[in-house]
Amino acid sequence: MSKLNFVPTVSINELRTLIPVVSKDLTVVITSEPGCGKTSLLKMIESDLGDAYQYIYVDCPVKDMSDIGMTIPNHATQTLEYYVSSLFCLNDPRPKVILLDEFMKAPKLLQVIFTRLMLERMVGDRPLPSGSMVFATSNNASDGVGDSMLAHAGNRVCKIEMSKPNANDWLQWASANGVSRVVRAFVALFPRVLASYREGNQDDNPYIFKPNMTSLSFCSPRSLAKCDVIVKHRDILGENATMVALAGTIGQSASADMSAFLSLEKTLIDVKDIIKAPESVKIPDEISAQLMIMFQAVDVLDTQDELTKFMQFVNKIPSSEVQAVFFTMMMRNAKAIKLARNNATIAEWAKNNHELF
Q: In terms of pTM, does the model score above 0.85?
């Protein structure tokens, strides 16, 4: 398949490691398509490094000069002194981890001010505490959403493109973060919702962001996660409000396709009931229904006995590829993998279906 404007990329997990290693000395500027999770890197790094650092988020496009610092008259010395904004918490001696979010959408004059922060770890005339880190994010220039960078600044930083999470990446994250089985099954059955326009051959993809699109609502890792609150409260919202809200979050095409999943979920047997009689429970005909049951199982199975009984149900599913979705999610879920690693039935399935991986 041909690629559009192909450039090498790194994953968000690779960046989670790279940024703390290099960004005390070299500022990393991360670009990606809209909604891919760049901003969440600050929280990830905070989770990894703990309270030895102070974490500062700077929303660059909405800032102006006075939000960074100002020169104030000192009447005693008849000079001007530079006062730094409390945003940077320089009264706290801990080193900082500073995220300059949407840096390349900041006004050019502000980019000049931030350049000293990125190159010298200085806010105006004030140095950051020793060991401070600075990194920045923005969108790809090809996205057409107004991102640009001064050439002399670009040559002094490490500019890296982050890869867009694919369906498998996103499903692993979603499983660990409580996203409902309906949304996860939808993504598993429609992996195109997380394709990239830069892959090429996506002109007919109605779900995703494209630079020439007119709609502001589309599927992205971010919008798919955000639509989950609508799905979880659909009984309160009612059918019309649910569908309108979904269309306003993930786009009209995706909301229309997801409607079938919402109707189907209400007819599914609960995993706990399957465990009671795995051999007698009928396998749903629809693949979407099979996926939803398996995603619920990843969430609720607690014991080896429950997993073994549920595998009796899984083994009845006609498609080994669909069975493989359950195996993959079990092995990628931090809680479920502890069960799966020590389960004889899972081990037997993996041995018999090794060609799928």
A: no
